[in-house]
Amino acid sequence: MIRRGLDNEGPDRLYTVTGGRSQADEPDLDLVTLIIGTAEPGTGMQSEHVRILRMCRTPIAVVEISAELGMPVGVVKILLSDLLRANKVTARHPSSSTRARTSLPDAAILRKVLVGLHNL
């Protein structure tokens, strides 16, 4: 296994990047939430925020941002919470939200489809 640069730096760097926070302010961010940049990077911004904004010119998932930055998802969620609070990005939550879960097909129909597939 090849270790990335931040993995070798230890927790001090991540502590500094997040300002000592351990949880994101935005609890609805999950791995597949799409992030879209709504502003350009500005002067005086944290370098990680600038990199995220550059990545988010087109919609990108939280997990992809994490992989691209080489940072844990939890740290990326904290950084994204900062950008959401500053209205620099927007988040599109996946369609698997509670609204979509309530409109699932009836279990009986799903069983009939499964039986039909087994009979093929």
Automatic annotation (TrEMBL):
Q: Basic and acidic residues bias located where?
A: 1-12
Which residue ranges does the record annotate as region Disordered?
1-22
Pfam families on file: DUF742 (PF05331)
- InterPro entries in alphabetical order: DUF742
What this protein is called in its record is: Uncharacterized protein DUF742
